[in-house]
Amino acid sequence: MSLSIRPLTPNFVGEVSGIDLTQPVTREQVAAIEAGMDRYAVLVYHDQRFTDEQQKAFSQNFGALEHTAGGNIVKPQEKRLDPYMADVSNLGIDHKPLARDDRKRMFNLGNQLWHSDSSFRAVPAKYSLLSGRITVGKGGQTQFCDMRAAYDALDGATKTEIEDLICEHSLIYSRGLLGFDDLTSEELAMFRPVRQKLVRVHPVTGRKSLYLSSHAGKIPGWPVPEARAFLRDLTEHATQPQFFYSHSWQQYDFVMWDNRTTLHRVTRFDNNQIRDMRRTTIAGDSETVAQLAA
What we know:
Strand content: 15-25%
Number of strands: 15
Low-confidence stretches: none
CATH class: Alpha Beta
Number of domains: 1
Structural class: alpha+beta
CATH architecture: 4-Layer Sandwich
Helix content: 10-25%
Strand order of the largest sheet: 1-2-3-13-5-15-4
Shape: globular
């Protein structure tokens, strides 16, 4: 059986079959997956029983793995996983659910906000690849919105207004939305804001897309309240039902998405249940805009 992709939503989410990603893949298969990503932006696979090493090996077909340093508040001695595996579970180092008031858990609640992975880095991420090792029966869906279609649906005046706008992104902004503001001086320095374009152009298809995220908190030259109200309005536009897909996880599902052209979030779930989700992230290759001097 050869690799095939069928649409789950028109021109946004594709379901892939006919391939075992835990085994070495051919150049032709990699090319077909990349073409599918360029077309759909989100690809869903089922029954991919990865080990961490297998997931990393498959992911590296699409670029260099992003190191997780600087993307969370977990200290090295508290990490469950390899530093090139992002732990987006609800588990501590003892592999048990974190307490409700655990500082790491409260920080990770930011994943329930619409965001693009690593937009808080000067060089933002390309792809994210998420493996559902243990999934929950209720809640915990990963929801996606198509930022290409959202851009296309804007009126001409708004497209003109945002064409050259730059936003500042930081985990300080997204976590602050939830009231998580007790960051240490070291964390504040680590999460120093970076600059990103608000409109991005896909390097292969040439399509424009909105580059939004809960990490975006300022527009240089704008009053902060006006900038945040404007970004809120754009996000409300971009997350309308016509741009939306929700993935209900089954164990060993595997989903990959293009952070340059999508928004995503996880929905709330019972924290007493184990939800073991492991993400590899493909690093981007350039800044979207030059950064300010330190």
